[in-house]
Design a protein that fits this description.
single chain
Length: 145
């Protein structure tokens, strides 16, 4: 087994925390501005996503501090969307989930062959993020016909 690159792993974990905390802000805001006939269902979905993003940030933070890192106080930058339609909100959500998926894939690549527990964590998070991507794609499918 190779030696874990602790600095690179900590830096990547901080990037993930920043992305997940952005998810909390993004999904909470979206839940407040969504309108239309499916508002209640979509608001519930978005609130659930915000809660899950916070849980992910907390899990990542526990690992990061276990590696003697310090959690970032920043969140990833976010661009304001001009149109607040459900389609736009879901499309922005999908883009966010794809970014998170990429970060977890980078984590897996970084820790492969150096930490079985971190590899397993990254694989589980990749699975969760892929499921979010699939769900959002299904939700968007009615808008692309």
């Amino acid at each position: 087994m190779m030696q874990l690159d602790q600095k690179q792993t900590i830096d990547l974990l901080n990037s993930i925390i920043e992305c997940e905390l952005l998810g909390v802000v993004r999904y909470t805001r979206y839940s407040l501005i969504v309108t239309g006939p499916y508002r209640i269902t979509i608001v519930d979905f978005l609130k659930e996503q915000a809660s899950e993003s916070l849980l992910h940030a907390q899990k990542v933070g526990e690992i990061l501090t276990g590696l003697e890192g310090r959690p970032s106080l920043r969140i990833s930058s976010v661009d304001e969307i001009c149109n607040h339609s459900v389609k736009d909100i879901l499309a922005e959500s999908l883009a966010h989930e794809e970014k998170a998926l990429g970060l977890y894939k980078n984590l897996l690549e970084t820790v492969s062959n150096s930490s079985i527990d971190l590899e397993e964590f990254a694989r589980n998070m990749i699975d969760e993020e892929q499921m979010h991507n699939l769900e959002l794609k299904k939700m968007l499918s009615d808008f692309t016909e």
